[in-house]
Amino acid sequence: MFSHQGLITAFNRNHSYIHAHVDGLSHAQSVMQPPVAGHCVNWILGHIDSYRNNIHELLGLQPLSLAVNVRYDKDTPPALADSPDVMQIGELLAL
Q1: What is d(CA 32, CA 7) in angstroms, rounded to the nearest whole number?
Q2: What value, to the nearest 5°, has the Cα angle with vertex 39 and ends 41 and 79?
Q3: Rounded CA separation 45/31 (Å)
Q4: Which residue blocks in 23-88 are alpha helix, DSSP H?
Q5: What is the DSSP string of 57-72?
Q6: CA distance linking residue 47 with residue 68, whole number of Å
Q7: pLDDT tens for residues 21-64?
Q8: N or C: which end of the chain has fewer CB within 10 A?
Q9: How many Å apart are CA 3 and CA 34, to the nearest integer?
């Protein structure tokens, strides 16, 4: 089981890895579908935010965004450029 400091370290590492790989991507690039089965960067970021909402709930904190859970939770469809509910990459990174 993680300690308090262990969780902080893990989340900080996760945060830095995400930014190392996606900083500078445009929204259009974030919704490009991979040529093999899988999800685009936009969906993956939203999915991470969705699970962070779940962690907030477990800790008794306010969720980051309820909309992110509706759009990016497990088994939700791919995030496509023309889907009106797809969040901008900047919004997802801010969460």
Answers
A1: 32
A2: 75
A3: 11
A4: 27-30, 41-58, 66-72
A5: HHTTPPPS-HHHHHHH
A6: 8
A7: 999 999 999 999 998 888 999 999 999 999 988 888 888 998 88
A8: N
A9: 36
